[in-house]
Amino acid sequence: MTLVRIDDPADSLIAAYRDIRERDLVGRHGRFIAEGKVVLEHLFFAGRFTAESALILDTRLPGMADTLAKAPPDMPVYVASRAVIDQIAGFPMHRGVLAIGRRDEAETVETLLATLPAHSVVLALIGISNHDNMGAIFRNAAAFGAAAVLIDETSCDPLYRKAIRVSVGAALKVPFVLAGSGERIAEALDAAGFAQVALSPAGRTDIRTLRRTDRRALYLGTEGAGLPEALLGRLQTVRIPIAPGFDSLNVATASAIALHEIVNRAQ
What's this model's pTM, rounded to 2 decimal places? Predict the structure, then answer.
């Protein structure tokens, strides 16, 4: 690896890392921040993304040797002291392990679905605007073997630093595509032969009684409002039974329970 010592937080070499908390709000032109050792390992193995550089706290460097050995051989590794890294990031960086990744050429929803195996479960996310929920859903998708995640135009970006961190790198592991409107997603899934169900507290079918099928898509909606009425009217709706007198589950928690049920029926 190519080690480069950084002693000046204003050094142009590390401009992409500067004030990362603020810059995550406006995007990075296809680039994103990966934070933490496990997340960097996912980045280095993810064929859909390119690792451009890493910024490592000098005291963390010895323990990162095995991880950095998996990085592209020509990738620069910037090394800095705690004081310098904190000034670069704009807040105290407790982990001291950062990298810049780049999203490669965007796929279409049709292209992604065409690559999936005959037995597949996918998630369709509609209006998921909370980064914690987005990251947790991706973590659940990886844990239960979801083949892909389709994300509508009203959802937040799973490559925001916080979403990647909460997902423990699963946002870099599980294939996903930004797929436009909910209607476009439904049409593409229809064409690809996926049986589609929408998760709702008022769902007509108990998810535990859902029939087995080779290809299944599960729709999840935003907290509170849930899925749009147009989609609920178009799709079969399912519910997770909960105790009487309680309204609903957090969408990330619901995704884990629903995926467990659906994946077992797809096998």
Answer: 0.90
